[in-house]
Amino acid sequence: MGKTGLLTQEELQDIIKDKKIKVMLETGTYLGDSTLEGSKMFEHVHTIEIVPELREQAIEKCKDRDNITFHLGDTVKLLPNIVDEIREPCLWFLDAHQSGPETSNNGEEWVPLLKELAAILEHMNRDVDNVFTIDDVRLFSKHWDWEGVSIKSIEECFRVHGVEIKYRRIKNDRFTVYV
Fold this sequence. Notes:
Structural class: alpha/beta
Oligomer: single chain
Shape: globular
CATH class: Alpha Beta
Number of domains: 1
CATH superfamily: Vaccinia Virus protein VP39
CATH topology: Rossmann fold
Distance between the termini: 24 Å
Order of helices and strands: HEHEHEHEHEHEE
CATH architecture: 3-Layer(aba) Sandwich
Number of helices: 6
């Protein structure tokens, strides 16, 4: 695992394997490191950041890439409309949570992971390959703000939404689910 949870190209290749993934959606842009790496592999990247200054820094970092859409706002509110637009096979990289003084939250919860996942599962195209990578497994149910987030609660979210998990794994502090 790289700095700030960076998804490297090598790790992205390992995650998507032989899947024909065309789009990456990232929650929690932060400084845009994973965004930039994803833009080198996928036809299009959507990334959502709640802090305007971090979004601007990421835009600057990725200024030479024309296949990234930077969204500003609360992931839980923005995801339904963005997901409705994505009809291609997608890697969903969920990493939006407050993790220090320069990051933020939506004023309601510091870790919106289960709500993000539910929004995606309700709106995604189920007729194509979808891969979910959820960052920071080491924090699941370990701190007050991560209470209720666990492998079991994530798998239950898939079950409740009628989405079958074909394969899952934990590697590099990330929980990856193939559906």
